[in-house]
Amino acid sequence: GLERTAAAAAAGGAQVVQLREKGLSDRELLERARTVRRLTRDAGVLFVVNDRPDVARLADADGVHLGQDDLTVADARRVVGPDALVGVS
Question: CA-to-CA distance for 47 and 85, rounded, in angstroms?
Fold first, then answer.
């Protein structure tokens, strides 16, 4: 499951965990993001949410990763704040 995978990644030396879930409702995605945030915070690992700066902000993630068709970096930055990581592919 999600919790086991995130915990194993952190224990195995991962420095960043990215949550990429495209088929969930907003509520389910936020719940999962908050779960992963707790695990990554406890393990000292960065946490990034894929495509959703709003969910990243609500879950207190370290950042967001944007695709080419997502919000612009400037718009995402307005949502996640000045200190969050913003990556783009």
Answer: 10
Residue 1 has pLDDT above 90, yes or no: no
Its pTM stands at 0.93
How many percent of the chain have pLDDT more than 70? 100
DSSP the chain: -HHHHHHHHHHTT-SEEEE--SSS-HHHHHHHHHHHHHHHHHHT-EEEEES-HHHHHHTT-SEEEE-TTS--HHHHHHHH-TTSEEEE-
Of 61, 57, 59, the closest CA to residue 17 belongs to 61
